[in-house]
Specification:
single chain; about 150 residues; mainly alpha; 2 domains; two-stranded antiparallel ribbon; 2 strands; about 75% helix
Length: about 150
Amino acid sequence: MKKDQKNNLLTRYYRGESTLDEEAILKNLILDEKVESPESDAFSFYKSEAGIPDGFEEEIFKAIQNKEKRRIHIKRSLYSISSIAAMLVLVLSIYLNIRNKKTKELENNFFVMEQAMYQVSESIQPQEEEEMFVLWIDEDTPIIIN
């Protein structure tokens, strides 16, 4: 019975039609036999490699913790960089605003000074005599048109 059952399970196993329970039964049947076969070699290899190495869990937890620390460090670095960038933008905008105000104030002062100088120059200059057009000169009386 065991031989027929084993052959039937092997056939189903190689076709990929076996369930996990049937595969466990097949594995126990093959490992209980002391006969050398490719299946017994494969199943004994799987059995020997199925265990978790010592310290594996600690290594995984350390890797996860390191990854979490790195992620937190990157997050903090991004927050710092974005804060610095926002501060620079704020300071630059304040500086440019102050500079624009000073420039406008200097332009206004220059315009006022220019107007004042023009008025002073107008008041200092002697008035030009208007040109007169002489139409007729008689012996004693000239006829002039402005």
